[in-house]
TrEMBL record:
GO MF assignments: catalytic activity; magnesium ion binding
Name assigned to this protein: ATP/GTP-binding protein
InterPro entries (alphabetical): C-C_Bond_Lyase-like, Pyrv/PenolPyrv_kinase-like_dom, Pyrv_kinase-like_dom_sf
Biological process (GO), any one: oxaloacetate metabolic process
Organism: Gordonia namibiensis NBRC 108229
Keywords of this entry: Magnesium, Metal-binding
Higher taxonomy: Bacteria, Bacillati, Actinomycetota, Actinomycetes, Mycobacteriales
Essential cofactor(s): Mg(2+)
Keyword Magnesium: yes
Length: 411
């Protein structure tokens, strides 16, 4: 990981990807001390994985699939998954694959604003089928927007098949493809098999590190083994059996040394109003200070207070980014992914010293321990590259309100 974030005051050249590029230049200038960098597909996997932000799932069966993908990109979505698994009925799978392939070809041949597009097949044996379909009958590679595959139900019994298939698909299409396995199998969930299973998975993933972008967590399936569906008043960390699984995954696979990978946050399932049992989880003060009391009420009415709470807990537990199933959730993930002015300067202070020791924060409100906090600081710099650094005094409320009412497009 690099230890500086580029201070690029220019904006996007055609064909590049950048977070918050749908906001107007005046809004961006007001919000950011350091602007987000253009996302480089050749970035090291940890930085590129963090840059995914909110990864939005869309069913492959949508008749307006291409239009939906382009629309979401214009609204600030950077990464999407075309879903061929849970969102598609068994009898629709073959048609859905054809539809997904046609969409990838269309976007590849008629590129607009680029993004990171993945396909989630039902199983590993579909990966090469999809790759072959993306080739023309003559054997020449048809341009496609495919970035890689999300592999559900990933476990030690299918890991090698899935990882090898992605490598073969890369060779077949003549482009580097990433894989993001989803951990949600019984062997990972059940305590008596978890450590052995995660140890085996770590070995498989390490052997294919060049193609592994991130590890995703299937919280819905994890809860399903116990007949649990978490209420929208709770976060996944309130469901202890699920929180234990997440802790085990991070412990084995989320380490910041060379053995680890970026682990992404699980899906938030809710997006509509409901009768509440508990008080909202959003404090009034930040919204009063920003004259955004009504905006807070809107967030609470759409269950966004629970989502914001869970995103914060994801970060506290070593997870980055999040799977989302509704476009309304994207702004929340991205607003909380931007690095604050305070975080950024703490990170720079920590990385400025190689010999260890303790320094007072330049904000004079904490002590920065140079060795224990170094890995945290490196992750902050990766987030700063992807999501930028906010100006002093700019908080997540400012970003959320700007994203809720974006200005004119930058290009």
């Amino acid at each position: 990981m690099t230890t500086t974030a580029s201070h690029d005051e220019t904006w996007l050249e055609p064909g590049t990807i950048r977070h918050f590029d749908h906001l107007g230049p005046a809004t961006r200038e007001q919000l950011f001390f350091r602007h987000p960098e253009a996302i480089d597909r050749t970035w090291p996997a940890p930085r590129l994985a963090i840059a995914l932000g909110a990864t939005l799932y869309v069913p492959a069966t949508r008749p307006d699939l291409v239009e939906v993908i382009r629309k979401r990109r214009a609204e600030g979505v950077i990464s999407m998954v075309i879903d061929l698994e849970d969102a598609v009925a068994d009898h629709d799978e073959a048609d859905a694959i054809d539809h997904a392939v046609a969409a990838l070809r269309d976007i590849g041949e008629n590129p607009g604003a680029p993004m990171l597009l993945f396909v989630r097949p039902r199983s590993a044996d579909r990966i090469l089928r999809i790759a072959r379909a993306l080739k023309t009958p003559s054997g020449a590679n048809t341009p496609s927007a495919l970035t890689g595959f999300v592999v559900p139900k990933f476990d030690s019994t299918n890991a090698e098949e899935a990882l090898a298939a992605v490598v073969q698909a890369s060779e077949l299409l003549g482009q580097h493809l990433w894989v993001m396995p989803v951990l949600e199998s019984a062997a990972v969930v059940h305590r008596e098999t978890r450590d052995d299973e995660l140890t085996a998975l770590a070995a498989h993933l390490s052997a294919h590190r060049a193609n592994v972008l991130a590890v995703r967590i299937g919280a819905t399936d994890i809860c399903g083994y116990f007949g649990i569906r978490r209420d929208r008043d709770l976060t996944i960390y309130d469901v202890r059996v699920a929180a234990d699984v997440i802790a085990g995954i991070v412990n084995h696979l989320g380490r910041t040394d060379e053995s680890g990978f970026v682990v992404t946050g699980p899906v938030w399932e809710y997006f509509a109003d409901h009768e509440r049992m508990f008080q909202p989880m959003l404090r009034h003060t930040p919204f009063r200070e920003n004259d955004a009391v009504y905006f807070r009420q809107q967030l609470v009415s759409r269950d966004m207070d629970g989502l914001l709470r869970e995103i914060s807990l994801d970060r506290a537990n070593g997870l980055h980014g999040k799977t989302v199933i509704h476009p309304a959730h994207v702004a929340a993930v991205h607003a909380l992914s931007a690095v604050t002015h305070e975080e950024y300067h703490d990170a720079l202070d920590i990385l400025a010293g190689e010999a260890g020791g303790v320094r007072a924060s330049s904000y004079r409100n904490k002590m920065n321990e140079l060795k224990p906090h170094r890995n945290w600081a490196l992750r902050v710099i990766d987030r700063a590259a992807a999501f930028g650094v906010t100006r002093q005094g700019i908080g997540f409320v400012d970003l959320l309100t700007a994203l809720a009412a974006p200005g004119p497009a930058a290009r």
